[in-house]
């Protein structure tokens, strides 16, 4: 297992910017912005890549980037994030790495244009890895003012970039009941989607508390599952407000296009819809889109673009879940770009 360099201070053991937690002999960075998942697995994958550029397409607070830059002096990282808080945090955290790190205000769907805009940073170096850590960050969930969580009453916002686009409250003010039912069902709210959609749209909630209360009115107490009854509704709204499904489809394609041969596309997803989309895309890339019967072999001339070492996703260990409960739902998938 790779040993990550650390810096010792007079009172504690730390990385350049974050305290380190030692678990089972492995030193893990404790991130005050967002606790990165699959730290060991992602460092083992990406730090072993040859000299070049890694695109951290959801850089967040820079946790994964910090680990990779410390472990792999041959790599530089171009970070992407649409959240201004995340970009500011990453810049501050990773400033000791100087010109080995840069961050762009964009989404991973715009990866191609980001690489073109930052051609001076990339230079002639190959893109040897792309990391996509999907969904909402711990920081975004914990900051009540962002409106991602029902744990505190706050304006119903939910935008990854709070400076642009419509809020969740504005979305609910314009969407019709049929479209909202479709969105809820896509995100796993099946049985009570109709009742929830009608109750929420009638209520026109302006805060997270009002939205949660509307969902609770729509679902009978006897039918409520484990966890909060509004969890999937909040997820569905967040995905829709931020265009996450379209962003993911465009981002995966842009990432594979950008990678050099042998480059790794590493994706962490947090709900079943995301993971299904990633799995389907990786299968398409690995088969070249071949639909020929297995027993006949491929006769259509499909050309694979990637190889996938394992069909199933990697799950967080019990140790990681104990350290970071939000990793319980995380799924890690990896594809390697191959020559046509």
Walk me through this protein's architecture:
The structure is a single chain. The protein is α/β, with parallel strands linked by helices and 340 residues long. The protein folds into 2 domains: 33-139 and 244-337, Vaccinia Virus protein VP39 (Rossmann fold, 3-Layer(aba) Sandwich), CATH 3.40.50; 164-240, DNA polymerase, domain 1. It contains 14 helices and 12 strands. The chain has helices at residues 39-46, 63-71, 84-94, 111-117, 119-122, 138-142, 168-174, 177-186, 193-203, 208-218, 231-241, 244-258, 272-287, 318-323; strands spanning 7-8, 13-14, 20-23, 26-29, 52-56, 75-81, 101-105, 127-133, 264-269, 306-307, 314-315, 331-337. The strands form 3 sheets. Strands 5, 6, 7, 8, 9, 10, 11 and 12 form an 8-stranded mixed β-sheet that branches. Helix 8 (177-186) crosses helix 9. Residues 1-31 have low confidence and may be disordered.
């Amino acid at each position: 297992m790779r040993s990550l360099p650390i810096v010792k201070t007079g009172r504690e053991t730390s990385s350049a910017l974050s305290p380190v937690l030692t678990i089972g002999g492995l030193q893990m960075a404790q991130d005050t912005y967002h606790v990165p998942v699959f730290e060991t697995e992602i460092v083992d994958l990406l730090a072993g890549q040859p000299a070049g550029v890694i695109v951290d397409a959801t850089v967040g607070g820079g946790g994964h980037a910090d680990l990779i830059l410390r472990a792999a002096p041959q790599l530089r990282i171009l970070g992407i994030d649409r959240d201004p808080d995340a970009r500011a945090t990453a810049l501050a955290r990773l400033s000791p790495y100087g010109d080995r790190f840069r961050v762009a205000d964009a989404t991973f769907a715009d990866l191609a244009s980001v690489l073109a805009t930052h051609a001076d940073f990339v230079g002639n170096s190959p893109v040897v890895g792309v990391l996509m850590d999907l969904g909402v960050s711990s920081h975004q969930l914990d900051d009540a003012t962002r409106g991602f969580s029902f744990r505190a009453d706050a304006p119903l916002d939910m935008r990854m970039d709070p400076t642009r686009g419509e809020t969740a409250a504005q979305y609910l003010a314009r969407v019709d009941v049929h479209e909202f039912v479709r969105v809820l069902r896509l995100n796993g709210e099946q049985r009570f989607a109709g009742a929830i959609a009608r109750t929420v749209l009638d209520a026109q909630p302006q805060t997270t508390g009002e939205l949660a209360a509307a969902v609770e009115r729509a679902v009978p107490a006897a039918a409520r599952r484990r966890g909060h009854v509004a969890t999937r509704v909040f997820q569905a709204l967040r995905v829709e407000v931020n265009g996450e499904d379209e962003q993911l489809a465009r981002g995966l394609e842009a990432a594979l296009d950008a990678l050099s041969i042998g480059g790794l596309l590493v994706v962490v997803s947090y709900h079943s819809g995301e993971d299904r989309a990633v799995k389907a895309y990786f299968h398409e890339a690995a088969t070249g889109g071949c639909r020929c019967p297995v027993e006949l072999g491929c006769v259509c001339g499909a050309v694979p673009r990637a190889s996938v070492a394992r069909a199933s996703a990697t799950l967080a260990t019990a140790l990681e879940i104990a350290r970071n409960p939000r990793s319980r739902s995380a799924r890690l998938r990896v594809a390697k770009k191959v020559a046509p």
